[in-house]
Amino acid sequence: MPKQRKNAFYFFMKELQERYKNVTMKEMPVIADPFWKNLPDSEKMKYETMAREYKKEENITGKIYSGVTFSDNIVHDKEDEEEKAEEAMKFVERYIFQMKSVDEVKETHFFIIDFNVLCCTDDEYIPLEVGIIKYSIKGGIEDCFHTFINAGPIPIGYSRTAMQHSDDTHKIPVSQFTLSESNYLKICKSIENFVNSGRNEIAPVFCLEENIKQNQGCLDWLCKKASYYNIQNIQCYSLVYLLMELRAYVYHAFPCKIAAADMLHSFTYDYVTKTRCDYHEDLDNIYCALGSVKRLCFLLSDAVCLFYEVDCTSKHLPPKIDDGTKFKIYKPKLPPALPVKTVVDIPVKLLKSHVITTIIKKDRANNNTSHDFHAHSNSPSYHANKPDKVFSTNDFPPLNESKPGIDTTEVRQPNTLNKTKAFDLFKKLSLNQDKRFASSSLGRGIGRGKKIP
Predict the structure, then answer these.
(1) Residue 289 contacts residue 131 (beta carbons within 8 Å)
(2) CB under 8 Å to 186, separation ≥6 — which residues?
(3) pLDDT for 60-106, tens place per residue?
(4) Which of 42, 216, 327, 361 could make an S-S bridge to 201, C-beta 3.0–4.6 Å?
């Protein structure tokens, strides 16, 4: 027969078995289950404390490892954690749905807690700061508790870890901090009185799921230091489960747990001023235990107040800061506006088509030839296919003709009378040859060595 896990229900069955002496422990769950469901939460705390104490003693004496392998212990611990998480979820569900009306849910006080630690050793969490908020859906943040805790000397081998953690997060001095409280009994009684629900019983406290182990460990550390075990009955539960049950009560449940957790892990209010303690406010440090629980209350208000038809006030959400500065509106003096014309006449000059032609005029009277370039729309363009003019030898004086009285070995220059005429004819020849060369080059290629006839 496998070894039976000794949880709170086990110790309840063990005590109930004294009434039913003829019933074995194997048969007790069927009998004890109805009694356990109707048992008040304040009495269940007693059996949960017995289970925690037994587990601590079992770990110290090593009985948990007797007769089983190491892998069996890992499986056993995992099953214990899963069972504990399931019981915590069921507790939160019962805690909310036992309320008789929506008004009762709105007026119920919920306590949210958070600790800042010096360090975490193998068997304990050492606290440096604690912050607790009393919150209700109807009234918002109604009261708060905050104090710094003197952790005493740093455990051997953890000095560097503690200083590094302080520098990276809360910036609280690890030793000789003047604002810290050394009276542990006073701290324990203050916490106990604060979380008292008014019915002479300890109310459950809530925090983020990943901080449950740390916060519970800090409460245990304070119990040992003060030798005051009343606050050991304070049990931390998941704030995510509380949010899910609050929404489900008014028929606006979350689709899954991740959706609820995302709302409580938002960074919307991380840097809101005047929500932290004076020490962290001066440092502008967000890792404040008091500021952390206040931000959780703000996020909780965002998630539930609308569905409970509660108007958010400055106690539900951060107050708007008004520093009293009066701003003057500056209106510049502008010149009067110019009148606007609906029709604007802009003259537009029409474009004309132009044909560029070359006209060569000969001024025979002055024996001068000028080349004028004009634009005429009716002048025909010059075509390269026009037949060339044939020149005779009479048009040019022979170059080898010699002048009397001049050395014929030199190249003879044209006479002064025919100089202009020769230049004119030479230009005309050059122009005709260029056009003929261009026309003969089309289709036959250039540079093939063919002579122009």
Answers:
(1) yes
(2) none
(3) 555 444 444 444 555 556 677 778 888 889 999 999 999 999 999 99
(4) 42
